[in-house]
Write a structure and sequence with these properties.
The chain is of the alpha/beta class. Helices cover 29% and strands 16% of the residues. The protein contains 16 helices and 19 strands. The strands form 4 sheets. The protein has an 8-stranded parallel β-sheet, covered by helices on one side. Strands 3, 4, 5, 6, 7, 10 and 11 form a 7-stranded antiparallel β-sheet that branches. The protein has a two-stranded antiparallel ribbon with strand order 1-2. Helix 9 packs parallel to helix 10, helix 11 runs parallel beside helix 13 and helix 15 runs parallel beside helix 16. The N terminus is likely disordered. Its cofactor is Mg(2+). Keywords: ATP-binding, Folate biosynthesis, Kinase, Magnesium, Metal-binding, Multifunctional enzyme, Nucleotide-binding, Transferase. It comes from Stephanodiscus triporus. It catalyses: (7,8-dihydropterin-6-yl)methyl diphosphate + 4-aminobenzoate = 7,8-dihydropteroate + diphosphate; 6-hydroxymethyl-7,8-dihydropterin + ATP = (7,8-dihydropterin-6-yl)methyl diphosphate + AMP + H(+).
């Protein structure tokens, strides 16, 4: 049955609230939002683990349909699902997984009691990991449960990586990440809360140390309120406390030897410049930043970065490397250690290149998707509305009628990842319920005020594209002189949209950014973005980036080719040139996704380029 076409209800900011119980403001300069209280439901943990209540008091129970779908695991949401699917394209990689406290598992039976209401809000950094069941679902459920009593707020997340296990290697790979929180719990109280959440999600108290676990949560650092960074280092994050008891040690005693901890912490350090004035996160014992500790670890490993790898490591498949991943519904993962080709499937009568070719027949459109997969597409992007320059809005009902049947048919034929290219939350929700995996919004969530909350409620990845205005007005908004030029301007606006998405409940590890080639960019602006991929990537905290230069007007202007379908050669040149201008300094595992019409041509070009780049140097 076709999903309801009613507009998505606004979703509260979930676990990413910047306002605590009773409206206590965070120190982060963010707009106020209603408090969110999340209450564990211990009696029905297998199917609806968390009940969400919005308002000033837990007694004011509101359960919108979007929340209930999330609780029951519907629509690819965060809630636990008793049956998880395994993707055919999820490859073995690995993860480390810490041990939770600092000295093993001595206090798994603690009750996780609530901290004193008079204790000030303090920042802390946690490592999170899982290597059993739906790993991303376990991590997401754990964060929701952690924030359930109103005394913990999740501020930011790292990216997620599949990493090989340490210490006990005969076990499945781990999914690992790091989280920045604020809490009124004292350190030991926070530890006990973590143990309580681990137990609630099925971790065995007497399990093998460093062995398999559904969820693992470690305290890495805990803010020392007596240290504000000092005048000598104004960019330093306030140092962590240093403590050691039988129950807890802070900083975590093994964090400096764990790549699967330092890499996510470096993510948080790199992304902090847009929200926290460029502060770095300093280890209070080693007096080094997270990037510095990771670099030291690389040197101790003989100079080979276990994240990015050297050329020979990439060529050999990188089985011992951490691999950044994008979690998808049904427990699947899209691996981001290689260039991914996104095949374009427009089911519109008026798209600038192939409009009308696949809009008449659902079966023909689905077969086109299968051909794109055969040609090398790793994801299919289905769009029911043209956003070419000057295009008029399409009614939501018409967009639904075009896209949803095609998505359903593709999903019946294949488990290939599918993204829905839409600016509307009602279309996004219907598409995910029909079998799509990713929401690709060319407006970056600005067109529909309900889009970010809708995506957050479904727990699926979002591609956040940069655009100013709308398809009718965007080309008149291509002046970036007042914001430092097109690269800096686009990066700044993209990161603000990313921050808005994170605040709405879409964690950083579910985000991909797109600078929007051809959208509110003039000829020189498009070329500048492709020429400065590295600068853009660094300015955006090494987020996964999607580029869509395929058959765009700037290629026609250069080549004189007026027929968009004859611009594939120019498309390949634009892609290879931008990839060649991307340096590989060994300290990043960011990914490029290429959205193209001619998948076969681009796939061949990328394979040859990668083989040459990864060839042995003499």
């Amino acid at each position: 049955m076709l999903a309801s076409r009613a507009r998505c209800a606004p979703i509260a900011a979930g676990i990413f609230s910047s306002v605590g119980p009773g409206g206590v403001p965070s120190r982060r300069r963010r707009r106020p939002i209603p408090p969110v209280v999340l209450v564990p439901s211990l009696s029905s943990i297998s199917s609806s683990r968390i009940l969400a209540t919005v308002g000033r008091s837990p007694s004011e129970l509101l359960f919108p349909p979007s929340t209930m779908r999330r609780l029951r695991g519907g629509g690819g949401g965060y809630a636990h699902d008793s049956v998880r699917a395994t993707s055919s394209f999820e490859r073995d990689g690995g993860g480390g997984g810490g041990d939770g406290d600092g000295d093993g598992d001595d206090d798994d039976r603690a009750d996780g009691r609530r901290g004193s209401s008079s204790y000030p809000w303090r920042r802390a950094y946690l490592a999170v990991g899982s290597n059993l069941g739906d790993r991303h679902g376990n991590v997401a459920d754990a964060l929701v449960a952690l924030a359930s009593r109103g005394d913990v707020r999740v501020l930011r997340t790292s990216y997620l990586r599949i990493t090989p296990p340490m210490y006990v290697t005969d076990q499945p790979p781990f999914l690992n990440g790091a989280v920045e929180i604020e809490t009124t719990l004292r350190p030991v109280e926070l530890l006990r809360r973590l143990k309580s959440v681990e137990g609630m999600l099925g971790r065995e108290a007497a399990g093998t140390r460093f062995g398999p676990r559904t969820i693992d949560m470690d305290i890495l650092l805990y803010e020392d309120d007596n240290d504000d960074g000092g005048d000598d280092c104004p960019t330093a994050r306030p140092s962590s406390i240093v403590m050691r008891t039988e129950e807890l040690e802070i900083p975590h005693p093994r964090m400096s030897e764990r790549e699967f901890v330092l890499s996510p912490m470096r993510d948080l350090e790199r992304s902090s410049s847009w929200k926290d004035d460029g502060r770095i996160i300093v280890h209070p014992v080693h007096n080094e930043s997270m990037s510095g500790l990771l670099n030291s670890l690389v040197k101790r490993n003989g100079g080979r970065d276990v994240i990015a790898g050297d050329g020979s490591d990439r060529a050999n498949g990188g089985s011992d490397r951490a691999v950044r991943v994008l979690p998808l519904p049904r427990g699947r993962m899209m691996h981001l250690n290689e260039t991914i080709i996104m095949g374009i499937l427009n089911v519109t009568p008026d798209s600038f290149s192939d409009g009308g070719r696949y809009s008449a027949s659902v079966d023909e459109a689905a077969m086109r998707a299968m051909r794109l997969v055969e040609d090398g597409a790793g994801i299919i992007d289905v769009g029911g509305e043209s956003t070419r320059p000057g295009a008029a809005d399409v009614p939501a009902d018409e967009e639904l009628d075009r896209a949803i049947p095609v998505i359903r048919r593709i999903r019946e034929m294949s488990d290939v990842p599918i993204s829905i290219d839409t600016r509307r939350s009602v279309v996004a929700r219907a598409a995910i319920e029909a079998g799509a995996d990713v929401v690709n919004d060319v407006s970056g969530g600005t067109h529909d005020p309900h889009m970010l909350g809708c995506v957050a409620s479904m727990g699926v990845p979002m591609i956040i594209m940069h655009m100013r205005g709308n398809p009718r007005t965007m080309q008149s908004l291509a002046d970036y002189d007042g914001v430092g030029g097109v690269v800096d301007g686009v990066a700044g606006e993209l990161m603000r949209r990313s921050a808005d998405a994170e605040e709405a409940g879409v964690p950083r590890w579910l985000q991909v950014i797109d600078p929007g080639i051809g959208f509110a960019k003039d000829f020189d602006g498009n070329l500048s973005i492709l020429r400065n991929v590295d600068a853009l990537r660094r300015s955006c905290g090494d987020m996964p980036i999607l580029f869509g230069p395929s058959r765009k007007g700037f290629i026609g202007k250069i080549t004189g080719e007026t027929n968009p379908e004859e611009r594939d050669y120019g498309t390949v040149a634009a892609i290879i040139a931008s990839m060649a201008l991307t340096t590989d300094g060994g300290d990043t595992d960011s990914c490029i996704i290429l959205r193209v019409h001619n998948v076969r041509a681009v796939k061949q070009a990328v394979l040859v380029y990668d083989a040459i780049r990864n060839a042995r140097r003499y």
